[in-house]
Amino acid sequence: MQNALFVGVSSQMAIQRELDVIANNMANVSTTGFKARNSRFQEYLMPVASADSFESPDRRVSYVIDQGTTLDLGQGPIEQTGNPLHVAVRGEAFLTVQTPAGVRYTRNGALEVNVQGQLVTSDGHAVQGEGGPITINPQETGAAIGPDGTVSTNLGVRGRIRLVTFAKPQRLTSEGGNLYASPDQPQPAGLAGRLESGALERSNVRPVVEMTRLMDVNRTYAMVSSVITRLDDLRGTAIRRLAEVA
């Protein structure tokens, strides 16, 4: 009976983690370039006794272990905006940006020019070119971004946006603000990543799918809670009856 309670608790902890992931996905349905995450769990079988004196072998007790989340790198829908500084990232590439915490990576292609003339994201993070930050003077006109990330104005090429990919993108960790950090060194994207100017990649979260998952998880949580309650009541009844016999 005690094992059954432990199994129920491990299931509830896993379900709570799943709820947190779904809630975060739903909160970012409208976030530019957001990539959904999915929970990943593993079954853990408790070691069993090996003595040969038992009349029947022990039953294997199965627990649930949270193995983190996986990043869904599927392409989000592309929305045309007409803004020449907006870029939708196609493929599995990421923009490189400079943040107060260091170099980070993002799919947020809502770019603009700040008061210092630097090309930045909508959150104010400086977009990194192959030679450092990209600067556009206020007097320049006709700003455009090519598919390979080349930024040009009426005065010529101002730089090329640094697009990168990762050999193991699932090792990327979310840091909030639609930013990712990686323990691995990035690689030049090459043909693995292209930019579409005048457009933005929207979130790849599918609200209908997430709502369905949410309903399933809530039903499962309620079912597990009910089982735990019945087991607890059964244990209490057993203790009372044993006390009456004594």
Automatic annotation (TrEMBL):
Entry's family note: Belongs to the flagella basal body rod proteins family.
Coiled coil: none
Organism: Methylobacterium trifolii
InterPro entries in UniProt: Flag_bb_rod_N (IPR001444), Flagellar_FlgE/F/G (IPR020013), Flg_bb/hook_C_dom (IPR010930), FlgE/F/G-like (IPR037925), FlgF (IPR012836), LlgE_F_G-like_D1 (IPR053967)
Gene that produces this protein: flgG_1
Sorted UniProt keywords: Bacterial flagellum, Cell projection, Cilium, Flagellum
Ranges where the Flagellar basal-body/hook protein C-terminal domain occurs: 197-240
Protein name: Flagellar basal-body rod protein FlgF
SUPFAM superfamilies: Flagellar hook protein flgE (SSF117143)
Domain Flagellar basal body rod protein N-terminal: 7-35
Subcellular location: Bacterial flagellum basal body
Residue stretches making up the Flagellar hook protein FlgE/F/G-like D1 domain: 88-152
Description of how the protein assembles with itself and partners: The basal body constitutes a major portion of the flagellar organelle and consists of five rings (E,L,P,S, and M) mounted on a central rod. The rod consists of about 26 subunits of FlgG in the distal portion, and FlgB, FlgC and FlgF are thought to build up the proximal portion of the rod with about 6 subunits each.
Main location, first listed in the record: other
